[in-house]
Write a structure and sequence with these properties.
Layout: H1 3-18, H2 25-32, H3 36-42, H4 47-70, H5 76-95, H6 101-106, H7 113-136, H8 142-163, H9 167-176
Amino acid sequence: MTTRERLISTAAQLFRAQGYHATGIAEVLAAARVPKGSLYHHFPAGKADLARAAADFIAEVMLRIVDDAFLPAPSWQHGVATFCHKLAKLFERREKASACPISALLFDGPEEADFRAHAEATFARLIAAMAAHARRLGVEDADGAAELLLVAIEGGWTLARTRRNADVLRRLASRLFP
């Protein structure tokens, strides 16, 4: 793993667990075991650049989970169920106390238009990926179904976090498709 990748991965974990403002650069550098100069070499604008890169890293992980759930699915409902179960496993492994991995970075960060635009683009990528699978699986309103799924997942993640129990995510598909 390169120095840049270590910084991004470490920052993503710390930002998710503690939030943007509660995570200091010194803490990221220590956990990643890199010198301060490395941060500014790879991320000239410092913490804000690193947070955007960490959000992109997490988005790529989420896009892989979307594909892993929906590519083999025989139907949209089956793909949604698989996706929800995969998210429940992710939640149980390391996310119990964390907000949604993407919103934890981009909404808890600085109140900058750039961060909001980055969040919008990141969520748009996820919706587009899910909508492409929905279209492929014959869903009439694929964009609407994908957006509804994202909204449900965000709410489900928040409730699971509140209850510290991933069953909310596991039951989500059966609640969307009774």
